[in-house]
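Q: Hi! First time doing this. I have a protein sequence and I read that you can turn it into a structure. Is that right? Here it is:
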Amino acid sequence: MPKKQTHYDVIVIGAGPAGFASAIRCAQLGLKTACIDNWRNKKGQSRLGGSHLNTGGVASMTLLESAKIYHQLTHGIAEHGIYAEAISIDLPLMIQRKDKIIDEIAHKMADLFVHHKIDHIQAKGRLLNTRQVEITTVDSQTHSILDAEHIILATGSNPIKLPCAPIDNEFIIDPIAALNLDTVPKKLAIIGAGVVGLELASIWNRLGAETILLEAQENFLSLLDQQISGEAYRVYQQQGLDLRLGARVISAKKGNIKVTVDYQDQEGTHTLRVDKLIVACGRKPNTGDLAAPEADLLLDENGYVHVDDNCRTNLPGVYAIGDLTLLGPMLAHKGIEEGVFVAELIAGLHNPINYDNLPSVIYTEPEIAWV
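A: Yes, that's right. Below is the predicted 3D structure, encoded as structure tokens:
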């Protein structure tokens, strides 16, 4: 029986866009590479791609495409001289199509790992020191230690939770559950009118839900050029989105069949009763148990890994990429760029990233992009 490999040139923790791209590029450059990832799909099956593929951007874009087709058939098709009757939604089938596309992409990613001879280790990884990673298998919870010359941290991020709106994923739900509903809510509220909130609103509004967005900030999409954000606000309102700015949610309580939401704005306190409440107020880095305390990995007060301009952490030979750092926006293509950059840096190549030229995007209809 061949001895199980425990030493690598590079170990990557995380197989989302950043980790996957980094592992592939490391292998292409001749580095013996392992990628540790513990993502499971709804069926409990191991899947590469992280949140971007499984519950984020790709999943959202797939459902939005279905929602756009339905909306066009029910609203704008007659002016083209095309008539259709008795159009209905089979939402479980729509979700099934989304899941099938995700599975197909994930299988292709796994094939690329095999092609490049990357060891895909289905486990939870934790940094022990500058050269060692502890792995814990998901099923048996057995522990073992791997070592490497270089370690790349790429564990991504997860949705922020709000104490005022405790998630039960039945009535008060997170963005992951919001992409897997089995019925279209009659009335839906979303906390947060940022990228994720707007993308989810674009889907459910087109599928027929009365959609209200509660945004605590007074300004809409404040990072954008003012002219673009103003035009986007106008377009979204024309599409039927109810955008309420300066609306700070103070409590959300589930009843028998409804959620009661209290929020404050400049005019006072208001109450909403909705069928579903989605909490989409941003993301935070997955660094809770990323490193053992004795590893002394430096984090800031919000849990982001401290890195220099070359994605190097305070530990020699340890890098952090993607959503774990404050270098650039939390976007998949930024993570991919960093993954390739770090792999090439380890191999002795240096092709620096110009973060000023990285585009940002919101996958609504119309899409919004800016640099």
